Amino acid sequence: MQHFDEQYVVSAFQALLAIDSTTGQFRQVQDWTVEEIKRLGYVPQVTHKGGVIVDLGGEGDPLVISAHLDDIGLMVRRINPDGTLNVCSVGGLYPFYCVTENVRVYAGSGEVYTGTVCRTPNSVHVTEEELRASLGDFRKNVCIVLDMPVKTAEDTRKLGIETGDMIALEPRFTMSNGYIKSRFVDDKACVAVLLNVMKALKENGVTLRRKVYAYFACYEEIGHGTTFLPADSKDYLALDIAPTGPDQNSEEHLVSIFCKDSRFPYHYEMTAELRECAKKAGVGYVMDVFTPHYGTDGDASVLAGYDIRHAAIGPGTSNSHGYERTHIDGLRNTYALTMAYIV
After folding, report:
1. CATH 3.40.630.10 intervals, the chain
2. What is the architecture of the domain spanning 6-71+184-342?
3. How far apart, in whole angstroms, are the C-alpha atoms of residue 67 and residue 29?
4. Three-state DSSP class for 173?
5. Which DSSP state fits 207?
6. CA proximity to 213, closest of 83, 52, 17
7. Do 326 and 307 contact (CB within 8 A), yes or no?
8. Cα distances (Å, whole numbers) of residue 211 to 63, 65, 108, 229
9. Which of 238, 236, 247, 263 has the alpha carbon at shortest distance from 315?
10. Strand partners, 158
11. pLDDT-based confidence at residue 121 (cuts at 50, 70, 90)
12. What residues have CB less than 8 Å from 126, skipping those under 6 apart?
């Protein structure tokens, strides 16, 4: 098996995290990915709506391997009378997983302002018991407080902020004893793994079993990342996180092979192929089912009408859509299974 470059994967992951890419805000992260792909020695193509596709070579029955560049985040819904921002989620972001988080507000004027996701009222010491006990709700009692001396809606509008502006959360990356903690492990960690696959193929002059495309999608978090595929696609493999939980087999040190998600089962025969590859290659893996609130871009491709088999694998990841955690071994095993399947 070709070398898993831990230093490269962690470095690429951090570089991606440094680029805010709430779904729809794709241009900068797409440009970075295009330049990195060129640096690795490939010729990328960009899709019209946002996304990057790369022909990795090989012949026969093309396989698409995807990972997504977009993150969950927030959008300005309206400006409150006191100058704070009422917001709505972009993707599956919930108040209990982002209250007190630092954010960057991308104003339509081109300026970027910092702020914090806050409850209203925002201080425990001066909040009545019944209000402290109530759940956070973006529409009712959660807002963005800007790091600017604004007191009215007009003050905020003078900054160039308006309804529809994007808001990105601070990732807060850290790594200790192999454990990677950060927002947006989903799915920038898998993007880094896929880039490492491409790097290893090019550096080692590897011959692929079949034709392979790498697809870096930009709209997975809202359900239509890969509703367009290359016309000759036959199979589809999504690299995405495998959420852990009390009823799950997924574990942060391992790669999960997905059997089913909230929409429907993954292709039984393709999933069996991945399982056999994992066994033969000695990859640390588990099989798992993800319900009731999970799906991948592979589902989007099937629902778009493509005549493909689809499957998904990914590293066990805790606290999905919050401050997530995985382990470098989970990324290593995801890389190893991907390589075993295509080489």
Report:
1. 6-71+184-342
2. 3-Layer(aba) Sandwich (3.40)
3. 13
4. coil
5. P
6. 52
7. no
8. 6, 11, 42, 14
9. 238
10. none
11. confident
12. none
Give phi and psi for 280, each to the nearest 5: -65, -35
The tokens of 292 are what?
């009731």
Catalytic member of 36, 220, 251, 324: 220
Measured CA to CA, the distance from residue 262 to residue 265 in angstroms comes to 8
Q: Which residues of the chain form CATH 2.40.30.40?
A: 73-169
Give residue 1's pLDDT: 53
How far is the C-alpha of 178 from the C-alpha of 240, rounded, in Å?
A: 19
Q: Packing angle between helix 185-204 and helix 328-342, nearest 10 degrees?
A: 50
H, E, C per residue of 124-170:
HHHCCHHHHHCCCCCCCCEEEEECCCCCCHHHHHHCCCCCCCEEEEC
**Domain topology for 73-169:** Elongation Factor Tu (Ef-tu); domain 3 (2.40.30)
Six-digit token string for 160? 């160039």
Model-wide pTM > 0.85: yes
- pLDDT tens digits, 211-243: 999 999 999 999 999 999 999 999 999 999 999
Question: 23: which 2 tokens?
Answer: 């779904």
Pairing of strands 142-146, 112-119: antiparallel
In tens, the pLDDT along 136-179 reads 999 999 999 999 999 999 999 999 999 999 999 999 999 999 99
Say whether 220 is catalytic.
yes
